[in-house]
Specification:
TIM Barrel; eight-stranded parallel β-sheet; 218 residues; 8 helices
């Protein structure tokens, strides 16, 4: 079994802590909205591939300026070496933005539901929309209200065995889906670099994830 891939989420400019985590991760997500000013210097220090992400408040982030200003740093990230750009499925003018991104980077199209885990059929339709819009990687993140939501979101991965997909549920109840995502065919799972610096509810740390994976897939 291949080593399950972990994407560590960078939420600040604490380069020392980031570099300490680097050997244990496969890639990074640079959260522009959380790091804010000065984020541009961080990618130059990374020795792993990285994803650029700039979330609005409505999508669980902290970006407060207008949509045009939000897209600007994402396009700048492609010039700084981002291998993948995370853009939300409901982004305005999505078709044109995806075309621009894909000239120099891969496009990860994301969907978040902060209230529930939709039915499997609903989520399959979401993935189809992501693929139609040009996604190289599809990401579906839901909210776990009951244990069975873990099984539903993980089943979504099994429904699309030939595409790159990330699917898991937020909140403590969704913990199992975060751990199992890359073990059942998901592209990777997300983890916080350190305790107290989580970018989503129920997110484990890189060290916690790696300890679990060493027991499951030594």
């Amino acid at each position: 079994m291949e080593r399950p891939k972990i994407c560590a989420v960078i939420v600040n400019d604490d380069l020392k802590t980031i570099k300490e985590a680097e050997p244990s991760v496969d890639l990074f997500e640079v959260r522009i909205d959380l790091i804010d000013e000065g984020w541009q210097h961080l990618p130059r220090q990374l020795n792993k591939p990285w994803i650029a992400c700039n979330r609005t408040i409505a999508e669980g982030g902290q970006w407060r300026e207008n949509e045009a200003r939000r897209i600007e740093p994402l396009l700048q990230a492609t010039e700084l070496g981002a291998g993948t750009i995370d853009i939300e499925l409901n982004t305005k003018n999505l078709e044109n933005i995806v075309k621009i991104i894909k000239k120099t980077a891969k496009c990860l199209l994301s969907f978040h539901d902060f209230e529930r885990t939709p039915s499997l059929n609903e989520m399959k339709n979401i993935v189809r929309k992501q693929l139609k819009a040009g996604a190289d990687i599809c990401k579906v993140i839901t909210t776990a209200r009951e244990f069975e939501d873990n099984l539903t979101i993980l089943q979504l991965i099994q429904e699309f065995p030939d595409i790159k997909i990330i699917a898991s549920a937020m909140r403590p109840l969704g913990l199992m889906s975060r751990i199992l995502c890359p073990l059942v065919g998901g592209e990777f799972t997300y983890a916080a670099i350190e305790k107290g610096k989580e970018s989503a509810q129920g997110q484990m740390t890189v060290s916690e994830m790696r300890r679990i994976y060493k027991m499951i897939a030594p």
